[in-house]
Amino acid sequence: MSLTRGAVRTLAQTDGHNSMPSFMPVVQIIHVKKVETPGGAGSERFRAIISDGQHYVQGMLATQLNHLVHSNQIMENSIVKVDEFMNNLVQNRTVIILLKVEVINPDPKQRFGNPTDIAKEGDLSAGGGGGPPQAQPMYGQQRNQGGGGMYNQRPAAAAAGGGGSNPYQNRFSNNASSNSSAPIVTSSSSSSASITPIAALNMYMNRWVIRARLTTKSDIRTWSNARGEGSLFSCELLDSSGQDIRCTFFKEAVDKFYHMLEVDRVYTFSGGRLKVANAQYNTCKSQFEVTFDQNAEIHLDNDVGDIQHQLFDFVPIAQLENVDPGKYVDIVGVVKSVGQTSSIVSKKSGQELLKADLVIADDSGVEVNLTVWGDRANEVQSAYVNCPIVAFRRARVSDFGGRSLSLNQSSPAMVNPRIPETQRLQSWWSTTENKSIGSMRSLSSGGGGAGRMDSFEDRKTIASIKDENMGHTDPSKPDWLSFKATFNFIKKDRDGGAWYPACSNSGDPCKNMYKVTQTTDGNWFCDKCQGTSPTCVRRFIFSATVTDDTSTTWVSVFNEQAEVLFDGATADDVFKQTFEDPENHNQDAYDSYFAKANFTDWIMKCKVKQDTRDGETRVKTSVYSLHPVDYAKESRDLLKAIAAL
To answer: 83-102 pLDDT, tens per residue?
Structure first.
């Protein structure tokens, strides 16, 4: 295979693979040399000279390609196809970072052409402009610009290794107390610093400097207790050794560094205090975590592509059944569907929490429900359109409704990430999308799948409630099941109608949920919000029996499911037609709603849980969602199941 003519010039004049995704030149590596950098084996890197036979350019291999050098797949004169690359300016020289390559010929036994240095050809900047951009302060304005004061360069101690205690604390202390601006943080090169890999940190180190990418940053949180009050935020750092570590900023450090630090940028960090990680809250690989105060030294560093953007350890969705609840996992899959954003009130804090449910599938042939929490729940409808491939990091496993996942505000989620799994899943989904919509096995047969019909394979029978001892295994948690059944009796003879009067307040804290009582003057009083209103909102509540070919059971039906059963009619609609006039009840109209709903077929999702009332414990089955039967699809599924016998 011949070399791509003009490849080096294009590489040198292009920002990177993202700006020309179809450009994948074939080039020759005419020289490979290990770069001895401080920091040990974790920082091992290789310089490469890239040639197209006419010109050559300086390059570096990303650390994920080191194994190709160790296995002699890349050596002097090797021919490779460049799949992904980055263009960086290092000390006014163009350096091409090879991120992903395909080895065409590891040893062609010769060098092609007589290449010359492309750097001597003149201006090679991607936009045709001048020299490299000048480093700018990231926070506040630089002082003493004309002199050689300490704000014009990084403190020498940081370059020498920093420390658990800042040797410049006395020099900065007066300024820190009188001025809230952070230390000047500028773009810099860490080549002269003694960088410590995160994997090499230990409690006996007083001075260290780590160079890492900021992969996550939490929101600012506040606390108040008997010892005082303050604020904090946490973030996670990943370095070229493949280790990540959690760090937390407190009080004054929050004001100084929160708005300065940007996710996905590379910094050097020093002046922090190491402590043993709390495994209950810390899921990073490092056994330590770092706390930073206002005296920390943080500098923006050149991103030369040697540090991954995220560190993933993917678990196939099918294996989530074997993961203990409460554990954290990384998953990557197709976002099959996106639910509407809703809110709940936290039992612990009493605060309203936003949530949105996603259905995620992968090529293990299994899907799972994932709940997104916080402000990002408002963004899912626009962020995950057209079934993208999304990598979710550190999703929490729950046994709510089988197996489900939960993603908090700070957990990363990358849409169509540049990883091998993305292309594999896109290929799988493009060939199976239409076939898998209704036939994929779901791990989330219950709570997390509100309003979503389970697949045919996930259904059970009414007899399963007793056969599997549902509701008895763990009294604190419900069991869930879906089945196809027919209503054969609906208990409608409730005094005043099959509903209850609820508060007319649609906002917090009632949200039309809490029962109200009628006062002597005809108004309605709510114990929850202590409000009085001339009107109420009626909500359905009644019992019924449902049957299939295996058994019959009593179920409780609540407002949302009853409205589906009655073809969209609300309790207020039925009340106005039947009981609103106390002198002229229309019993026939009332009965007709229930008669029409009786002996209809539905796919039901039910919750089975122990219920104790008046000292008596019994198992209660509640209808959670109702879906009408699609008889054509049901027939196809039955034929498919019979054929599989």
So the answer is: 888 787 766 678 888 888 99
Q: Which residue has the higher pLDDT, 16 or 84?
A: 84
Which of 245, 234, 248 is CA-nearest to residue 288?
245
Q: Is 150 exposed, middle or buried (0-12, 13-18, 19+ CB in 10 A)?
A: middle
Average pLDDT estimate for 560-570:
91
Instruction: Give the 3-state secondary structure of residue 237.
Output: strand
pTM value? 0.43
Instruction: Identify the H or E element spanning 578.
Output: helix 571-578
Nearest C-alpha neighbor of 217 from the set 235, 196, 205: 235
Count of C-beta atoms within a 10 Å radius of residue 556: 16
Count the Cβ atoms, other than its own, within 10 Å of residue 36: 8
pLDDT tens digit sequence for 390-425: 888 888 888 766 688 888 766 778 888 877 888 888
Residue 458 to residue 482: CA distance in whole angstroms: 7
Local structure of residue 188 (DSSP, 8 states):
B
pLDDT score of 597 more than 50: yes
Confidence at residue 439, expressed as pLDDT on a 0 to 100 scale: 58
- For residue 627, give every residue at least 6 positions away whose Cβ sits within 8 Å of its Cβ, in sequence order, or none: 453, 602, 603, 604
- Asked if 543 and 554 count as a contact pair (C-beta separation under 8 A), the reply is yes
**Burial environment of residue 382 by CB neighbours within 10 A (0 to 12, 13 to 18, 19 or more):** exposed
Name the helix (H) or strand (E) containing 69: helix 66-70
The DSSP bridge partners found for residue 482 are 605
| Nearest-angstrom CA–CA distance, 298 and 267 | 7
Element counts in the chain: helices (H) and strands (E): 12, 31
**Per-residue pLDDT tens digits for 293-351:** 888 999 998 888 888 777 788 889 888 888 888 888 888 999 888 887 777 766 666 66
CA neighbor of 398 nearest in space, from 334, 477, 463: 477
Query: What is the length of the chain?
Result: 645
Quote the distance between the C-alpha of residue 266 and its chain's center.
21
Dihedral over alpha carbons 376, 379, 381, 387 (to 10 degrees): -70
The string of DSSP codes covering 311-367 is ---B--GGGGGGSPTT-EEEEEEEEEEEPPPEEEE-TTT--EEEEEEEEEE-TTSEE
**AA identity, residue 457:** E
Q: Which of 143, 106, 133 is nearest to 32 (CA)?
A: 106
Indicate the SS3 state at residue 604.
strand
Angle 291-294-295 (CA atoms, 0-180°, nearest 5)?
Answer: 90
3-state secondary structure of 223: strand
What average pLDDT does range 190-211 have in this prediction? 76
Between CA 610 and CA 109 the distance in angstroms is: 76
> Average pLDDT of 367-389?
84
Instruction: Please report the DSSP string for 107-125 in residue order.
Output: --SS--S--EEGGGGS---
Place of tokens 């991103």: 303
Closest CA to 176 of 254, 117, 252, 234: 252
